[in-house]
Amino acid sequence: MNHRVILGFEHGVLGGVDIFSLNLLEELTRRNVATSILVTNHFREQPYALPLPQNLPIHKLPIRKSDPWPARWQEMIRFLEAEAPCIYIPNYDFNYSCVAPKLSKNVIIAGIVHSDDPVHYEHFLRMGKYWNGVVSVSKEIAERLKALDPTVSDRLVTIPYGVPISGSFPERRDSDNAPLRIVYAGRLVQRQKQVLLLPEIFERIVEQESNIEITIIGDGPERGELMKRCENLSAKGLIRFAGKVTNQDLLRHFSTQDVVVLVSDFEGMPVSILEAMGQGCVPVVSEIRSGIPEIIRDGHNGFIVSAADSNLFAQRIVRLARDRSLRQTLSFHAYNTIRDHYELKQMGDKYLRLFERLTQKAANGTYVRPKGPITYPKSLRVTWKDQLPKTVRLVGRYGKTLLKRIGTVFEINSPKNRT
Predict the structure, then answer these.
(1) How far apart are CA 28 and CA 120, in angstroms?
(2) Contact, 98 vs 374, CB < 8 A?
(3) Whole-angstrom distance, CA of residue 312 vs CA of residue 377
(4) Cβ 35 vs Cβ 5: under 8 Å
């Protein structure tokens, strides 16, 4: 493939979308496809940033924090056109992907709807008609996209995430009295991830089975509160907080664990669950409509439980602690599920086929992307001052100071100070 691939990467957060981007970058690079990440919001402080591997092909959009939005968008257009012919994947870079209507046909856009939530659907409704191809990461999301815009069907494809897996089934060979090792990995946030439900579930487990070890991997604004609610478990030496780790280290952690938990109230296709299952962990997860029903068959390769039912959640994990044979069987099926359907190479194959199809349609005129105005999300604050030419903005910036100095010299007071 002659086209470069540019992956949108706002600033890099500890989450599934950016891990997907790193995985896709690695796989396409392995296949000698020129692929890079474009970081647009590089000047924003991100306390919960995703630790990035070294020597990645990363570009930073050459903009400053003080630049107004029209100037930033113009720089985005210049960058992508300079990389053309290329394939641009916006991901969740909502603020900069709005340049799509202004891009030439040499920049092919493959938009991905990563999550079953209003923010990602709004992005699709606003920008989807300017995407050469639309990717959903789950069947549920695909159905919702078609309901939102029936005209998308001929451009829509479902490509689930793919993850690295162990070369062979990573069987756990523990002694009979080894503890059950339970892991949660992800952002420590309440919205979506519902992490403050975890302490109650863990306490319910300990009431029935104390031979356990719990590891929390990740970081986020709820870390302090989560640690506070787990003080009793910490005092007993049953839980540890591992903090942020690289993705390679995360896979190594998963290879030593028995059970992975997820209590989210919505997802797209949870990458952490795929990664953990690919290392032989048994998933015990909340009942959500996107992704989970495609990955997990309850009682076959994991358990699906209502997150609101902490007792049942705990019972399923205790059952795994006490029934080694069941745990081994579910672990084997979990690994095979990822090997057969969600392995990284399979995802790479599907994206390459998509890229070839999109480039052919663009070249022969089968699909001509429409033009339109830059339409940014409502959450973005763009004021009338941002629309002014640079020279006018500079005068505005220094005008008040200049007038103040003139007023001091000529003893001019502002009206509110006059008597």
Answers:
(1) 25
(2) yes
(3) 41
(4) yes
Residues 147/7, Cβ–Cβ less than 8 Å:
no
* Closest residue by Cα to residue 283 from 308, 312, 263, 311: 263
Amino acid at 359: T
Residue with the two structure tokens 């429409």? 370
Instruction: Report CA Rg, the chain.
Output: 25
Angle between the 118-127 and 139-148 helix axes, to the nearest 10 degrees?
50
Closest CA to 219 of 253, 245, 255: 245
- By residue count, the chain amounts to 419
For tokens 């994206």, name the residue.
351
Q: What is the pTM of this model?
A: 0.88
Give the amino acid at 408: T
Q: Compute the mean pLDDT over every residue in the chain, rounded to the nearest whole number.
A: 89
Can you tell me the distance from the alpha carbon of 208 to that of 329, in angstroms, rounded to the nearest whole number? 23
Q: What is the mean pLDDT of residues 42-53?
A: 66
Q: Residue 145: how many CB atoms within 10 A of its CB?
A: 24
Joined tokens for residue 158: 């479902």
Q: Which candidate, 20, 76, 168, 18, places its Cα nearest to that of 376?
A: 76
d(CA 16, CA 398): 44
Tokens for 2? 């002659």
pLDDT class of 409 with cuts at 50, 70, 90: very low
Position 10 pLDDT exceeds 80 = no
- Phi and psi (nearest 5°) for 402? -65, -45
Distances (CA, A) of 400 to 361, 393, 395: 54, 12, 9
Q: Which ranges constitute the DSSP H helices of 1-138? A: 16-30, 69-83, 118-127
Q: Enter the tokens of residue 40.
A: 């647009």
H-helix or E-strand containing 2? none
In single-letter form, the type of residue at position 59 comes to H
